Structures are given as structure tokens and as C-alpha cells.
Amino acid sequence: MPDGYVNTPYEETFTVIPPSKAQTNYGLVDIVKIVVDSVGNLPPGIDYFANSDTFYVDTTYCVLLSGTPLVSGTYDLRIRVIPYIYTLITGVFRGDPVVDDTSLTITIHEQAGIEDFSGVDFTILDATPNPFRNTTRIGFYTRNQDIVELRIYNLLGQLIYNEINIYASGKNWFDYNGAGFNPGTYLYRISNSSKSITRKLIRLE
After folding, report:
1. 10 Å Cβ neighbour count for 43?
2. What are the chain's domains?
3. What is the three-class DSSP state of 94?
């Protein structure tokens, strides 16, 4: 996984496609689905989001790690999954939990210091405030004038808000009023003509 920095927003999206077969204590077996039971040893300040906790084989799922790291260090993520296995004799049954603590590692470094956009074409700035109650400002930086779009989704993946405008080069902000939506966790995505970045947004009571 990409490295991060203390007090600097971090987000990484990746896809998961569960295999249809796996080597287990029962030998090589057919997998019907896997259920993510827990994700541990995340860097403090980083949260795990997925569009489902149940992953069926040969299906693509989106996973997001997002937040603002608080403590430096190297973190081997501890992912506990429960496989559901099919055999001709038993049909589908729940297998023994499996813990993977070797596949995903995130290293968080101390704060880099001064904000520097040299070499950066497009990036997201912190939403301020976040968490928020009614309104928040969602910022971004673009090197050149561009068409930039904001989309906000609930955790079911449903689009609940979008806004698109032409923005000048430099720092810019979307002023978002979420008073009409329920308190909870949302994902927001800011896109320009060549890149999309997704992060977490929390609305309080």
C-alpha cells in the first residue's frame, strides 16, 4: 500500500475479486463466498470501508482505506475472513476463520511539514470541518483551469449529491450543505478531466 504521513489525509481505493478455489485444511475446495469478519491493526485515524462485507467469488468489490493518520509506524493489516465452502457431500458450509496479516502493509511517516504542490496536477484538500453538522467546505487543488465535479455517495453506493463547475488553477472549494441528509458516514469523490479521488465525510446529529 502507498505510504502516508501523520496529519495528512490518506485515501487508497483498491478492488477485491475472491478466487473460486482455495487451498484449505480440507484440501483444494470450491469457495462460494467469503465474509470479512474484521480488519485490525489499521493505523490510528484510518478506517476501512467496503461496498459489502460479503464477497462472492469472481465478483469485483471496491475497498477504501481513508482517514487522517495520527501515529507514525508500520502497520501490517490483520484481516480475518470466514470462507463458505461447497462440496458435493456437504453442500455449502461455513469454514474455519482465516487470518491474513501479511498481504497489506501501510507505513505512516512523520508529518512532512510545509504544504507543497510542486509536481502535483490535482489533489484533494481537507474537508473543513469534518465531521460536520450542516455545512462543510470540500477543497481541492488543480494546477490548471479544469472542469471539476463533486459526487457524494452513501455507503450503499447510491449517489445523493453532485455538483460540477469550471474552476481556476490553484486552491478551490465546494460549499456543501448536508442538512437534508441523515447523520452518518458518506464517501465523497472529486474528479477532474483525468483523475478521481475518494474520501470519507461524516455528518453529525
Report:
1. 23
2. 4-109 (2.60.40), 122-203 (2.60.40.2550)
3. strand
